[in-house]
Write a structure and sequence with these properties.
Blueprint (H helix, E strand, L loop, with lengths): L15 H17 L3 E2 L5 E3 H8 L4 H6 L1 E4 L5 E4 L4 H10 L2 H4 L3 E10 L11 E10 L4 H17 L5 E7 L6 H14 L6 H9 L10 H6 L12 H17 L4 E2 L11 E9 L7 E7 L3 H4 L7 E7 H7 L13 E5 L2 H16 L4 E3 L6 H11 L3 E5 L1 H6 L1 E6 L5 E5 L4 H9 L5
Parallel strand pairs: 1-5, 7-8, 12-13, 12-14
Antiparallel strand pairs: 2-4, 3-4, 5-6, 6-11, 7-9, 9-10, 10-11, 14-15, 15-16
The structure holds histidyl-adenosine monophosphate.
Amino acid sequence: MIQLIRGFKDILPGEVELWQEIERVSRDLFENFGFREIRIPIMEKTDLFARSIGEHTDIVEKEMYTFPDRKGDLITLRPEATASVVRAYVQHKMYAADPVRKFYTIGPMFRRERPQKGRYRQFYQINAEVIGVDSPYIDAQLIFLLATLLDRLKVTDVAAHINSLGCPECRPAFRKALSGLLDAKKAQLCADCNRRSSTNPLRVLDCKVPGCREAMAEAPSLLDYLCDGCRAHFDSVQQSLKRLGVPFVIDKQLVRGLDYYTRTTFEIQTGALGAQSAVAGGGRYDGLVKMLDGPNTPAIGFAIGFDRLAEIVGLRQADFEKAPQLFIAALGDASAEKAFDWICRLGLEGVTAEMDMAGRSLKSQMKQADRSGAGFVLILGESELASGTAIMRNMRTRAQTDVALDDRIIDRILAHIRPYSN
Ligand code: HAM
């Protein structure tokens, strides 16, 4: 038997209803706040991700699914959505008509990480991106949106962590201080981090190797190096969050795993998923639009890990169980023919109706109806056809009613079923 690829998964009926509900609630919220959907391709030129996420990040160095297409051009299955959203903004000159754009996008991402609970090689993200707004109001609004979404989905046991990563003005001084420490701790750092010390020192703060974590415990904090502009911006974000009643903690360790971040960064963390504590992450990326050859434009966004979210929402699958509203138990060819016409017509009326198509006995059809969870069963045999009356059984109450089999039969069935539909 051919099985699916390691780290990939199917989302089967029975589970998918919960995903649909999460998607519905997310779309509603984003649309209410003026976001418009954007759909971007699953594959892009490798350069797009290498430039945006950063050559010396784990994602670009180790985790991308990159391969040459038949002409030899390098293409990559997208590991995230932000780079593509910005590419689209620049490529279609969306800034020309109005530089301020709010996007959301939902779809699969691909990273070749070691699979474990909450970590997959194909996973899904719900992204929100605002391009063209510098104001700290929008930072607070995005975190507020995340908190609201989690609340609507009845997620508990989560905390918003926030930090500021400064800007090109304040970061060099921090980098210098950090490099001093990295030189002193050389012997304690893993091989990757020793390499990163010169290529991308900030990434050492993100390393999960215990020795590196220990060595970085006394690392300087970017918050102590913020320039006046970044400090005022970060203070204002916090004030807005307080006014909006969104609880948060300031987390100096939060550096995020992608290089494009500036100023505000944030993560929603949970204790419910073991090692994979981040349900959502995001931040400002004020330099990215320009880096991708667009005008100098600030931007900020976040991505929620859909798979992780689905594991911790307080909604239960049972709330979305789907069962046919009607099962027609038909005996004999003439009855089956009528039953078939009726289930097709009922489908057009928005009623899910099923029948047996394998010529089973009445007893096994009744079992089948029971198993399907159908709300009503219409029993239609030769004698019912002859008498012009069939029996409709309410499967919850077991009450039975006669239904006249005349040319208003569809209306009669609907009159029975509709009061019980939601
Ligand atoms: P990220 O932190 O790399 O950020 O990913 C965001 C979220 O995606 C994570 O918090 C996690 O919930 C989920 N996630 C990441 N990798 C996996 C995986 N292997 N399996 C399951 N879930 C995973 C970004 O991707 C940025 N583009 C977010 C952003 C948008 N920043 C600004 N705008």
